[in-house]
Amino acid sequence: AKAKLLSDYRSPEFTIDQIDLTIELEPQATRVTSVMQVRRQGRHNNPLVLEGEQLQLQSVAIDGRMLDATGYSQTDTHLTIAEVGDAFELNIVVMINPQANTSLEGLYLSDGAFCTQCEAEGFRKITYYLDRPDVLARFTTTIIGDASQFPFMLSNGNQVAKQQLDDGRTAVTWQDPFPKPCYLFALVAGDFDLLEDSFQTMSGRHVTLQLFVDKGNLDRADYAMASLKNAMAWDEQVYGLEYDLDIYMVVAVDFFNMGAMENKGLNVFNSKYVLANARSATDQDFNGIESVIGHEYFHNWTGNRVTCRDWFQLSLKEGLTVFRDQCFSEDMTGSAVNRIDDVAIIRSHQFAEDAGPMAHPIRPQSVIEMNNFYTVTVYNKGAEVIRMMHTLLGADGFRRGMDLYFERHDGQAVTCDDFVQAMEDANAFDLSRFRTWYQQAGTPEVSVTDHYNAETQTYTLNFSQQTPATADQSDKTATHIPLRIGLYDDTGAAIPLNTEAKLTDGNVYSLLTESASVTFDHVKTAPTPALLKGFSAPIKLNYQYSDVQLLTLAQHCEDGFTRWDAIQSLLARYIWQIADGETSTLPQNIIDGVLAIASDGEIEAALKARLLQLPTVNGLVNQRQQIDIHPLLNALDVIREQLASALYDCCLALYQQLQQPDYQLDAESIAKRSLSASCLGWIAAANPPAADQLCVALYNNSDNMTEQLNALTIANRFDLASRNSLMDQFEQRWQDDGLVMDKWLNLQGCWNSEQCFGNLAKVEGKPFFKLTNPNRARSLIAGFSAMNYRYFHAQDGSGYQWLAEKIQNLNSINPQIAARLINPLTQWRKFTAPQADQMKAQLEQIYQLSDLSKDLQEIVGKSLG
Length: 865
Ligand code: HT7
Ligand code: ZN
Fold this sequence. Notes:
The chain is α+β, with helices and mostly antiparallel strands. 41% of the residues lie in helices and 21% in strands. Among the domains are: 1-190, Immunoglobulin-like (Sandwich); 445-550, Aminopeptidase N, middle-beta domain (Immunoglobulin-like, Sandwich); 558-686, Zincin-like fold, CATH 1.25.50; 735-865, Peptidase M1, alanyl aminopeptidase, C-terminal domain (Zincin-like fold, Alpha Horseshoe), CATH 1.25.50.10. It contains 26 helices and 34 strands. The strands form nine sheets. It has an eight-stranded mixed β-sheet, with no helix packed on it. A five-stranded mixed β-sheet has the order 17-18-19-21-20, with helices on one face. The model has no long low-confidence stretch (mean pLDDT 98).
């Protein structure tokens, strides 16, 4: 397959102003009739070339005149009509087979309900079309089907007609008044339970809200509905953005490749991000629902009203919308720890992508399969880039930029550059160097040295930046890096910043060149610097902190992220020293420092839970070029055990204090449960039999999934005596509930036990495990390959072989999911022999598959190349 290049972008030669679709539903033979008003764009005589895949063409007519086979030509991917006028009506009829569609792209069946997924390029599996985001058409959709089987037949916009046909079928017609690209088209037909509510917009309009869930699931729909209403109110308050249709529908389906999809007026959701009650879902699940419901809702303006010119611009809508959903969640929970969790994703996953074979800028320049670019780089690093603009411009300046963006581009398909231009113009702020973030892959590294002059009481920071070469680009230039700085004295008190250098709001210094220095005056003693408060840029920072300086920041800095980061750095330092055989223990002052944090009654519970986290394996792996994995895992165990025995009494006391009589879903109760789980983990590491008793009691006495799963997770992670019986109990209770069993499947995947492989085979045979369902497949497979480090990296290579087998099966079932799950193998260059060679050998075998999908070709090819 050939790569498409951003530099090859050309505006469309034709556009489609209106499309009337008629879709006659039959599981194996759905007829799709489209009537399109097509217009030539610009002066040329080129033929009309439409995209289409896996379609059985029935007929083509232009202005009511049927074309014979000489009037058009077809390939597997295109329909070309040579002789067309400047404006004409094009009528095309195709047949498709939704039942055979296991890729979950286009029109497919999810447990008997018809549904669609068109982003990025799935509409071409429904009919021939100009399947690109810069062709915006008005859609009218008529769905014809058996109303007893499909009481709800839904599409975008407003329902304008419903009619009983002579043959007993029902025809329902929907009209979307907003022109849109076809990736935002949606159709759903099925039998659901419906939760209905309403929202009054700031201008007083009444919007009907409808949430469709599988029969019997209404008791799990309330939180999603409440989150939707919160999101609608938040977007009005923060951005002045109001919903624009009279109805907003959300449908939850079980078979879905990603989290959800923002189709205009008709969102389709993975049921994981809708269905939750206290018995079946964890606090983390509730958080996920709030953020994904918010995310899809916010797309109505950042994505739908203003959309992308081409798919290289994906971060225009995704980076911005992730940033908006992160801010929404922060405002809803009112907690600083959201930021820590967001940064942890960047450091564990995005840094790996930036250093790996698929490295790409947030605006990629070359793509083979677009589905491979829905990445942590485009989404999460993209959000960090938007956040940096927010940091540099301030909340008011950012809002001015957003207002100008909508004023200029509402109803258009635009580029990332149009967004930055609006920010720049609205604030008269120079973002020319900042634009590098859109062009350059890789994680910039900022190295800092300092000098304190006691005589002049001045303190100088010397910065230099460098971005290492990435798989896609060797030459890098300096970028615009906002560094939020603080200085602290030995007691941890903040020192006021006096400098001639320009600092923007909140003491943000803009590093714009390869190297630069800043001098602070009136600094009475040598300070401890905090150089990246709030993780003000997605970079790696190198400064030679002493242990004591890091302890000072960990204990006293007012910025939660900096405190967490300081402890992570301290622990990582000794984990590496142990892994490298340079030492065997953690120094006592660090143990005392962590203990002081654990016993500090002033630290709020949610933050304390984060401060007591060990660095993640992924985060550690991303700190070095090459890893000998088993010594690293052993070193982590050493540190865990050592800290655990010091923390044991304190954690046991805290654990008892934190018990709550009943389940509440407010921020404080959630924080207590999270700290309580963290304490239980430390107790288990120090004293497995004691933890075993606590886990059994917690599991049996609790009525909520958060605590039950905490008990189960710890029993599983530490392979406690009750592990098997608790897992069996859980299976008995929930075996008919796929969503809940995902949690169990995930635990089976990451079971750190010698029985792990035999167990995996048993689990794969369970009736509720289906490789065709992405949630099930992901839970077990990623549980093993992304979380079970010891056995995934088993010395004989059997972990890699197990994953490769799953990938081979998924290649023909669902290429998108195969391409996502293969990720751990593609990182082979990070590991020393024999692991690297064993991983590579599996990739080479996969690369030989005769029916290898485009998705895997791109990823495996780059990894081996
Ligand atoms: N915009 C949505 C993207 C999406 C998607 C992309 C590829 C294949 C399947 C997909 N399902 C949804 C999701 C979002 O960012 O809101
Ligand atoms: Zn999105």
